[in-house]
């Protein structure tokens, strides 16, 4: 995208934003999201930290996103500049990056390269911006970032962002930058609980941070029609989860499980003029007053969206409220293709719950039922896929049905950590088996088995795998480039990472 086109695009988007509060301050932080604007402005975590930095005395925050065109054309990435001032990324003393999941590491590398900021941490010095990372990825395995960023806030960062930035600001103002001042900065950051400094900690990650419940809920200060969640005000109804699903990072054992936000607190935080409201959390439908919350918002004339609906929580009153809130498709999770596998995942979704979901969708005149599930699960067989075909066919006779499918990728900090990737061909064959079996009856859509394998290698990997992303991106960022980059790594000397096993599963 040319400079003139980018500036015109930014002007249009800024003009359409509601809630933005421009600010000038002695220290300005570039807040980087390694995906395009539409995705970044739909991230509640990104918006929460943007607001937190702007609320800090002496600090301002400017946003920068992956080039829109770069998502489709890997050879494209204009020089990154912020939305607020069009200032180039490399001119900021501090770059804070929010990484949602493993494949976004490539976006970070591409943006650093385009800004002529060395992507290798060890190749940067005091002349370069300090790269600070955080985001959802840190709850699982941030080690692939360790060779790229200078420091990582692990877990919930609302209470940590201020002391971390205070250290960075104080070091920057104590005389001319030098190698000794950068080393002192890293040493001071390493002493802050929940802050991971690769140069000091090696591979020893700290405990995941948990903020005081008084700081909940997070909410989005900016609404925009150009986000994936167009013009939607985002707010947490809870944080964490009370369930024990074996594949999920945000299960009961993470940060004390579910922490609820009261209905009154939720409703009083939502602006009266918000016509679209997104209720966000790992288990929104488990909130004990979720039906009342949705109805209260519908009474205001607001359209309501929920980030997670559990099939065992669906009942007539709840689905009626969702219909009032503008739902046209009832979306929930099947999780595994068979009842046996769902039980192994410790999911409460059973045949009776999913049948009831289909019946409720029909009764409330929803256009369709959409179910998310994984394939390539441990111990999965063709018989499980055939059960899914039979059961999905049964559901489709009740209400039009769509399946959204993702290959299973084992994540760190879960009971299924270390389980192997099923194999690209295995996953592709099972997806094709599903498509053939459901052709003409169910809409089947899936994410790529090849890119799921890349995600898996990074999810189970460490610094070496993250540095391999740099090589893959610079070779063109195609799947073949990742495959070569991972294959060129030396064999691991410890049980983790399990990269050699992942390579064998290609």
From TrEMBL:
SUPFAM superfamilies in the cross-refs: Radical SAM enzymes
SMART domains (UniProt xref): Elp3
Domain of life of the organism encoding this protein: Bacteria
CDD domains registered for this protein in UniProt: Radical_SAM
Gene3D superfamilies from the UniProt entry: tm_1862 like domain
Organism of derivation: Pendulispora brunnea
Source lineage: Bacteria, Pseudomonadati, Myxococcota, Myxococcia, Myxococcales
Radical SAM core domain sequence ranges: 226-441
A Pfam family recorded for this sequence: Radical_SAM
InterPro entries (alphabetical): Elp3/MiaA/NifB-like_rSAM, Radical_SAM_N2, rSAM, rSAM_horseshoe, rSAM_sf
Name of the protein in question: B12-binding domain-containing radical SAM protein
Coiled coil region boundaries: none
């Amino acid at each position: 995208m040319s400079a003139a086109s980018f500036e015109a695009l930014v002007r249009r988007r800024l003009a359409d934003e509601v809630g933005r509060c421009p600010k000038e301050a002695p220290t300005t932080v570039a807040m980087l999201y390694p995906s395009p604007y539409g995705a970044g402005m739909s991230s509640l975590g990104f918006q929460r930290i943007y607001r937190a930095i702007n609320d800090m005395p002496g600090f301002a925050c400017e946003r920068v996103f992956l080039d829109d065109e770069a998502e489709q054309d890997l050879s494209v990435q204009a020089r990154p500049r912020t939305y607020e001032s069009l200032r180039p990324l490399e001119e900021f003393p501090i770059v804070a990056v929010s990484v949602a999941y493993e494949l976004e590491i490539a976006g970070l590398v591409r943006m650093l390269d385009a800004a002529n900021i060395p992507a290798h941490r060890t190749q940067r010095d005091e002349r370069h911006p300090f790269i600070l990372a955080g985001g959802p990825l840190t709850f699982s395995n941030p080690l692939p970032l360790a060779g790229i960023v200078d420091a990582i806030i692990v877990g919930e960062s609302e209470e940590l962002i201020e002391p971390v930035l205070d250290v960075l600001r104080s070091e920057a103002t104590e005389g001319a930058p030098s190698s000794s001042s950068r080393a002192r900065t890293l040493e001071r950051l390493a002493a802050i609980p929940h802050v991971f400094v690769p140069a000091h900690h090696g591979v020893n990650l700290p405990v995941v941070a948990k903020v005081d419940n008084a700081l909940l809920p997070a909410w989005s200060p900016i609404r925009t029609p150009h986000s994936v969640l167009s013009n939607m005000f985002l707010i947490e109804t809870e944080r964490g989860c009370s369930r024990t699903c074996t594949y999920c990072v945000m299960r009961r054992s993470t940060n004390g499980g579910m922490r609820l936000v009261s209905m009154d607190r939720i409703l009083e935080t939502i602006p009266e003029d918000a016509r679209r409201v997104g209720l966000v959390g790992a288990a929104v439908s488990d909130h004990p007053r979720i039906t009342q919350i949705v109805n209260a918002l519908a009474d205001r004339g607001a359209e309501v969206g929920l980030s997670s609906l559990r099939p065992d929580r669906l009942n007539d009153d709840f689905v009626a409220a969702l219909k009032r809130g503008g739902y046209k498709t009832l979306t929930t999770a099947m999780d595994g293709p068979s009842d046996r596998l769902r039980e192994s995942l410790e999911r409460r979704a059973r045949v009776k719950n999913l049948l009831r979901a289909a019946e409720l969708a029909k009764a409330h005149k929803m256009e369709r039922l959409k179910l998310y599930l994984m394939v390539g699960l441990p111990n999965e067989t063709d018989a499980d896929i055939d059960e899914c075909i039979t059961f999905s066919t049964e559901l489709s006779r009740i209400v039009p049905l769509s399946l959204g499918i993702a290959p299973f990728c084992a994540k760190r900090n879960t009971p299924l950590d270390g389980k192997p990737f099923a194999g690209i061909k295995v996953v592709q064959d099972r997806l094709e088996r599903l498509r053939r079996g459901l052709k003409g009856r169910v809409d089947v859509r899936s994410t790529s088995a090849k890119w799921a394998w890349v995600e898996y290698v990074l999810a189970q990997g460490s610094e070496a795998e993250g540095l391999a992303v740099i090589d893959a991106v610079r070779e063109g960022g195609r799947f073949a480039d990742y495959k070569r980059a991972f294959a060129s790594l030396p064999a691991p000397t410890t049980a983790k990472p399990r990269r050699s096993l992942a390579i064998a599963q290609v």
